[in-house]
Request: fold
Amino acid sequence: MPYNTYMKKINLQQFTPDKIRNFSIIAHIDHGKSTLADRLLEITGTLSTRTGLNVQFLDKLQVEKERGITVKAQTASMFYDYKGETYLLNLIDTPGHVDFSYEVSRSLYACQGALLLVDAAQGVQAQTMANFYLAFEQDLKIIPLLNKIDLPNANVPKIANELYSLFDFMPEEIIACSAKAGIGMNEILEAIVTRMPAPQSDRDLPLKALLFDSWYDEYRGVICLVAIKDGMLKKGDHIYLHQSNCKHEILELGLMYPEQLPMDALYAGQVGYIITGMKTIKEARVGDTVSISKTSVTPFPGFKPAKSMVFAGIFPVESTEFELLAEAIEKLTLNDASVNVEKKTSTALGLGFRCGFLGLLHMDVFKQRLEQEYDLSIIATSPSVMYYIDLNHDQGRISIENPADFPDPSRIQQILEPMLSSTIIVPKQYLGNVLALCQEKRGIQKDMSFLDEDRAVLSYMLPLNEVATDFYDTLKSISSGYASFDYEPAGYEVSDLIKMDILLNGDPIDALSVMVHRSKAEKIGRELVEKLSKVIPRQMFEVIIQAAIGAKILARERISALRKNVTAKCYGGDVSRKRKLLEKQKEGKKRMKQVGTVSVPAEAFLTILKK
Reply:
């Protein structure tokens, strides 16, 4: 908790826009953003400096502590004295992983500057470049920092040269620092005050604020983070939210210092939290404009909705928990607006939700948060992607995400699959492995260049379907963890995709069918049939499992019948008696195979769904 209690006596009215700096920290994953945030909060007296107290203080979620990554952007305010003047600094610590870039872009809307953090040992990585361009497009003042200069393998001149050749940063602009050791922190704070612009805000204009984040608190309801563009906001004010078209009274407001610290009012240029009497979660839409009345201001354009890249089904293990799951997902999507959700029914798993995510880690973290924060037992199906199908005779275009919805092949003119434009930065010695992996995943090389004598930058077009399964894990393992990967959507391209059916005793089972590329159909067919033969239990009759495309059988496995010993009671006597009983059993099994249905357990569906 903050330890300098004089804060309560400070009146925010004295901080005019020219005494305010709003900035965020952006970097590749693991380059030290959260550690830098801790040090800045300690040096400005926002946190106590007792050792070991503030390890990744702003990573508050359990999933963040366990994985050691930032998932949610977090805000904290601090006060810094420079040349006899006190400045109010609002810091937003952002995630580094590509799956959370929506979280980064949203946070940058509330800032005028950004600290671009680069590891002095690893240098510029794929996500460093992506985050730089996000900040550059929003016209933010970017201050480059070289972190971890105290590492034995840090190479400051070489990485400074990289920053110059890639982003045109002059050596004198770069600040060398070590967040862990506390080196260079005062230079960073000075640079924030002297080099970053103050917010362009006016206290005398009517209230206009941007709601850029919100979350649900068990005891206080919906809490919103707002960046005040113009005017002021005080306790008891009645505010109007433009997108949700509703009015509320301010019950409490204040600064995140770094926990919620109530204040009497917030003024133009400041960033803080507000608590109103919001009854439902849908009223706090991220990107909404807050004002006093409907007509007093022109609303902000709002944020572009995030485009889901990967889809997965989320189902409760116990069907009775469906309502609890629905409520938990609603609360979590308030905190993470980039997840798209709709209800879905599955033959195998019952009622659940189809959710759209920005990537595999995003999906994994969402699932983990549901389990940890809401104590739910859930089943998440394997990720799938959205395909478009152009139908014959100008019947239009349809979109499918589930192979069961695949139309009759005679109606199909062409199938389009989503593509990614990806950047891979890899050390030279692993280049061959990475090229082979991209080739195997049907990638098309667009460009290859060298950052320096040791590292190559590859530019590839990759099908999302191939990336959505195990691409990232494989890339990390074949490059000993050194390769970095970043991607962005690159539209749709025509592809030779087909629906592969799984037949049980000649009958296609819709819920088991999958979409595959023709060149990989046989390999995937063999794998699935082999897996299913291990999870489908033996029946009283023989079961034949086949993978087929149309009438062509690609793979086959046989599960032999359970056999009762019908000759057990025949003690001695003529052999023809035993033969007669065995023939009778054989005929019975034949008849059973024709009329009997194969009972397929839920594990068999999960084998396909979690392939």
Q: What stands out?
A: Residues 134 and 593 are 61 Å apart (CA to CA). The domain at 208-291 is CATH 2.40.30.10 (Elongation Factor Tu (Ef-tu); domain 3). The chain has a mean pLDDT of 82. The chain has five domains: 5-195, 208-291, 310-380, 387-495, 498-609.
